[in-house]
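Students often ask why inverse folding is considered easier than folding. One informal answer: many sequences map to the same fold, so there is more than one right answer. In these notes we will look at a single instance of the problem. The structure comes first.
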């Protein structure tokens, strides 16, 4: 693997899931692979799981880790070409990425969607500029449109907990008062569409995701109907793609409750976290044995380790 920016960078999904499960069984089997190699973790946004799991995975592989919070610790970075840099950004990504690439063998970057300009967000400017100028492999730690390390952890978790060969998986929109990116939902669609599953996406009208991510998934505006017989309920809030970045409704009837979970076939609840309790999903669901959120977060370590191993092998 050269870069890990999207599903397209994966050669074989089942092999990658298996690599994750192998790492979980035997975390230190490849400790010499990353010896004397350095990964730089560059954050433009907050993180708990991504930061800790990626650092842990890199250490399991024997790597050194350098972290940087851009804008807070370093200079603000200009991303666009040919601009007159008379604003608040003191450094251009052309230099910054090239310099980071000199110190690091792999560079991992988190940069959320701005949610102001759809065309700019969906061009994936930050990831593409780092890819262009760093001169080393780039890993996506959640970009404007995708969160592939999360999606791989989700696939690993579904593989562990599925009780039938072709599970019914439902991605449901959840209410929130803040506009959140579409990245986690887009990426989940992109990855689940490559697995053997009955896949349904449910959300209020106006919240349709970009068609290139929805693919062949069935879309339903009726959450109760979508939940019927489901094996996995994957909750996430996202802001509108059509009326870009806007919160069109906060309809509390879309919150996942135990009554809703009763429509499923003893379904499991999944969420990437952080989750706002009793806004998106009730305490009762999150604290029940049907919730997989902690197992799912734990699998972030093995997802990162499978990907880093693949990238290290290509160095
Ligand atoms: C991010 C998102 O993409 O939705 C990161 C998820 C891994 N989530 C948030 O920003 C949540 C913020 C909040 O205030 O609830």
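Output (designed amino acids):
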């Amino acid at each position: 693997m050269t870069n890990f920016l999207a599903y397209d960078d994966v050669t074989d999904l089942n092999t990658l899931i298996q690599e994750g499960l192998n790492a979980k069984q035997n975390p230190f089997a490849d400790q010499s692979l990353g010896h004397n190699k350095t990964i730089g973790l560059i954050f433009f946004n907050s993180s708990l799981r991504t930061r800790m799991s990626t650092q842990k995975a890199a250490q399991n592989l024997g790597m050194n880790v350098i972290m940087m919070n851009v804008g807070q610790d370093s200079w603000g970075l200009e991303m666009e070409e040919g601009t007159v840099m008379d604003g608040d950004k003191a450094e251009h990504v052309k230099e910054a990425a090239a310099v980071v690439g000199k110190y690091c063998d792999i560079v991992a970057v988190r940069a959320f969607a701005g949610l102001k300009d759809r065309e700019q967000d969906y061009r994936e400017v930050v990831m593409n500029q780092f890819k262009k100028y760093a001169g080393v492999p780039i890993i996506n730690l959640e970009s404007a449109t995708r969160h592939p390390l999360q999606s791989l952890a989700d696939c690993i978790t579904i593989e562990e907990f599925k009780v039938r060969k072709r599970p019914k998986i439902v991605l449901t929109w959840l209410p929130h008062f803040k506009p959140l990116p579409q990245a986690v939902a887009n990426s989940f669609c992109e990855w689940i569409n490559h697995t053997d599953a009955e896949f349904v996406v449910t959300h209020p009208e106006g919240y349709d995701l970009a068609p290139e991510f929805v693919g062949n998934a069935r879309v339903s505006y009726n959450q109760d109907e979508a939940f019927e017989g489901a094996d996995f309920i994957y909750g996430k809030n996202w802001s509108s793609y059509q009326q870009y970045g806007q919160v069109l409704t906060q309809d509390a009837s879309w919150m996942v409750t135990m009554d809703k979970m009763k429509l499923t076939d003893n379904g499991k609840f999944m969420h990437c976290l952080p989750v706002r309790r009793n806004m998106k999903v009730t305490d009762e669901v999150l604290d029940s044995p049907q919730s997989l959120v902690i197992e799912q977060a734990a699998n972030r370590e093995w997802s990162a380790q499978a990907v880093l191993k693949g990238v290290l092998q290509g160095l």
